[in-house]
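Q: How would the structure tokens look for this protein?
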Amino acid sequence: MKQVVQNYKSGELAVLDVPVPGCKPGGVLVRTTYSLISTGTELMKVSEAGMSMLGKARSRPDQVAKVMQSVATNGLPATYRKVMGKLDSYTPLGYSLCGVVEQVGAGIDDVKVGDLVACAGNEHALHAELNWVPKNLYTPVPDGLSPQHASFGTVGSIALQGVRQGEPQLGEVALVIGLGLIGQLVVQLLTAAGVRVVGADPDPSRCELAESLGAAACGDPGSAAVENAVMELTDGHGVDQVYLAAGGGSNQPVELAAHLARDRGRVIDIGKCRLDLPWNAYYEKELDVRFSRSYGPGRYDPEYELEGRDYPIGYVRWTERRNLACFLDLMARGRVDVGPLVSHVADFEDAVETYRRLKDGELKAVTALFRYPAAEVKPEAPKVTVPAVRRPAAQAAPARTGKSPVRLAFIGAGNYATSMLLPHLAQREGVSLSTVVTTTALSGANAQRKFGFARATTDLDAVLGDPSIDAVFVVTRHSSHADLTRRALLAGKTVFVEKPLALTEEELASVLATVEESGNDRLQVGFNRRFAPLLREAKAHLGARTGPASLRYLVNAGRLQQGSWYLQQGTEGSRFAGEGGHFIDTASWLLGADPVSVYAVAAAGNEDLQVVLRYPDGSTASIGYVTNGPGGFPKETLDLIADGKVLKLDDFVRASVYFDGTAGRKRWVSSRLPKARDKGQSAELASFVKAVRTGGPMPVPLESLVATTAATLAVQAALTGGAPVTLAVAR
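A: Here is the predicted structure in token form.
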């Protein structure tokens, strides 16, 4: 691909062929449509690069100070080599663009291939054909907003953050000093907020442009026109806010701000101008001087920008990304018009010549854009690999001898473990609850008291290293399942892990690699519905089938309480990633096969999904997973149709089978269960304990557990890619 670069030592500008960036997790690969040239920031950098070494030093005294500190620490020769090496390297240009998502990294679920996004950042929104952009530095472009205008997103966020720092109020009057790109945007934002604006700039054409975009009056900073306009609009009191959007080495903007601001007015520095504050003037008016840091909260924070960790909206309302989305929305609704600001659009291949013309003053532009050649996005057919199960040569966990009870350990004692698993095990004959491991001492003590564990501890290694423990239950948060399962398998334990087994393809592959490495394939995942007595009875009445089946499964999952850790998608996966394996496993068990492809679509604004699974014999299963249904409606309803027969399940309360026979239509209907719904946990645990005791086969084949987990992962891949995902079995 091609990218605009500059050598800071020589000042050379070039369009280089460079490798395409990889699409890392937590971000997207974007093909640029338009990128914006910052005629202020970028031209300043280009101009500095053309200076002599002395000129560079004078323009960046902060960097000179760092060099001197390095000399004192590392010596002159080492510092010289370091500085010259850095100067004599190509550096990128650009920080504001709009493009089309070409590839989606792991962990991204808010955009898909082909979506139009606006991107920010001087390391991620560069003048390049392709950029990898982390999650908090892009946002989808609203419908109806052109890519050309969406490329203003970053500079718009800078202006918007500056206005937020000024805290404008309806009816106030503001002075904007400097009517370049940022100044023009500040004028429009203030006008949209109900503030009357006076502009100051030595360029008459920029003053005229600002007045056409909403400014009440504009003029040269040194003229009487600006002061007269301020006095007239404020009854002689002075403006409420002054926005410094100018650059250069003159101290005039700072002095003018003090002269025209009212008593206790606010002065907000957005640009990079000289700031020698006249002490008396600022002191006597007790002016409030504020700085606006680039695009907003999150800027320069690597955990926010690179790792995608958002700030809670209750504490930080307007972050970098929210500012970006807000500015795009303002443009889409016509509150801000950037069309008049586009002075020049150049083809990307003419980038070097465009910079030269801008630097030499031959091309005068408030804003210039690069237009990139159109490229048809042809997304690869997505696929998820189903790791091959390679049986170990020597089987672990041979049949136990004697009549001693099966000794179990629990890792985790949260709500599911204490309500759905431990009550079935605490009184089971032939079972001994040996040890419970928790991260907090009190939760372990509570589980020990309620269920009779012999020991409670926070030491996981002591449990895995205890040879007397036969099996380990992993009932922790989703993000830890794969790792804890691997550790327990390596320790030679039989493992029961609650769903999901893994949250990524890499985690799933690592579990299978551990099985092969350790020779231990004694693994069960908590897919309990296939053990439900009512469903097993209904399946028996349905009987064998000869043709393909159609299965429909509606899951009325309901809303989660605010603060639930299930909502922590960044670390714990989506709700469907955590729970969906239940329904895929049930469908696959009823159909007697593993799926070969997965397709999924999502409703806008929530986690409602429609998932379609296809099976080798042509059977299909559709799973509707909804979170906003009424609480009084059954949680799970299922219909399976095949060979003129229908199996119906009503929320594990009643089941029925309808079929045509030689003696006419027949029907089997279960009796309504007298007690709580039995979703199979008790029978599942009984089967697991039996397998541990006898050394016999695990209740569910490992191949099925792996296939169900891979299909669950494929749902997210299908949502991201917008196409069916093939489940490709590794060879």
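The mean pLDDT is 89.

Residues 143 and 332 are 8 Å apart (CA to CA).

Upvote if useful.
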